[in-house]
Amino acid sequence: MTEADNSRIRFESFDLPEPVLQGVREAGFEYCTPIQAETLPIALAGHDVAGQAQTGTGKTAAFLVAAFNRLLRHPPAEDRRASDVRMMVLAPTRELAIQIHKDALLLGRHTGLKFALAYGGTGYEQQREELGAGADVLIGTPGRIIDYHKQHVFGLKRVEVVVLDEADRMFDLGFIKDIRYLLRRCAPPSERQSMLFSATLSWRVMELAYEHMNNPEKVQVEAETVTADNINQVIYYPANDQKIPLLIGLAKKLKPERAIVFVNTKHWAERVCDWLNANDLHAALLSGDVPQTKRTRLLAQFGEGQYAYLVATDVAARGLHIPDVTHIFNFDLPQSGEDYVHRIGRTGRAGAAGDAISFGCEDSAFYLPDIETYLGSRIPTEMLYPEDLPQQLNRPAPRPRRKPEERGRGGPRGGGGRGRGPGGPGNRRGPPRRSPPTSS
């Protein structure tokens, strides 16, 4: 966190229980970010909060610190059963749920609270057993939580704190009925504290807040621009057959410590990942049909630096918190300005600097006007010079042909295939047939 971006308010200045302060210190937090400085005085006073802030601004720490304060200073109800959770955090994606759980373990390690994690895709029986053994704090995605609740694995009637993170994304993913189902089974809004956070406090988000919260106070922390000012954005205009050489040339020139390459389709994500690896740029592939256990392992390895590049479809654009991502490459431009902002928001987090490099190719450049309209500004153009395109590339080995029954898997989630980028379903010409230049 840089001095320019913090609010100059110390966590130590709040009247927090010592176990919570100890966790804050060990997490390396000293000064509050703007959203933390605005949220904590309201939440620590016991009021509900509906907060809006850009991604990577410290929302998770804000609601965890406030919630731990309440749970430690208010003993549980005398009639609370061992299976009744005291706090529930709902997240739209399993990656976000995993990250919140990780942060909760760090910040709450001295509180004596028991944490449980519930998300789909893997670990069904293990998660069920851990939750059934009793937990104070339940963090997870709506579907898996509802599944366990209907089996009476845990109870919600004694919930003291409810947190809804990335509420706008809940609507986008069609989870709103599940959210309402769970909130109606919790203690009434007047008997609990509720916190909602969203990239935008749209009318539909605020309607949800006023229906299921107790007169929430709005907190809005907005930059002058839609994207963080500390992200340096540029766009190149390569031909389709120049994209892979350009990506590899820039990667070898810039030498990013940790970079995410966004591609619109699974087919091209596989190709890009193969080309990077063939040219000694260690990369891992993340798409919607990667099994959850493997996804979790790949993200951990990427975070630890075992891979310098993560090639991802838009399944990774939301809900991921990977520290120290220095560069974002939009190998394909996304369809919308909102998707663009969420993609490049994976870098430049918590005040750090970041670079976002986009390719406006023959198949995706027509998305640019809508993106720049959403941003309210032009993305600076970078000239493409011959030296940016290496002429000697190691060609990857062909991938094994998939069996007929495996073709077409992934869909919009697996390949981000909503777009008309290379190989997307809207591109009638199909993927370009030309290969990157090589020489012997």
Description:
The protein is α/β, with parallel strands linked by helices. The protein folds into 2 domains: 11-221, Rossmann fold; 231-415, 3-Layer(aba) Sandwich (Rossmann fold), CATH 3.40.50.300. It has helices at residues 18-26, 34-44, 59-73, 94-107, 124-132, 142-150, 167-172, 176-183, 203-212, 243-254, 266-278, 292-303, 337-344, 368-375, 411-415, and strands spanning 49-53, 87-90, 115-118, 137-140, 161-164, 193-198, 217-221, 231-236, 259-262, 283-286, 309-312, 327-330, 354-359. It has a 7-stranded parallel beta sheet with strand order 3-4-2-5-6-1-7, sandwiched between helices. The protein has a 6-stranded parallel beta sheet with strand order 8-13-12-9-11-10, sandwiched between helices. Strand 3 (115-118), helix 5 (124-132) and strand 4 (137-140) form a beta-alpha-beta unit. Helix 2 (34-44) runs parallel beside helix 3, helix 3 (59-73) packs across helix 4 (94-107) and helix 13 packs across helix 14. The termini are far apart. Mean pLDDT is 85; it is low at 1-6 and 406-440.
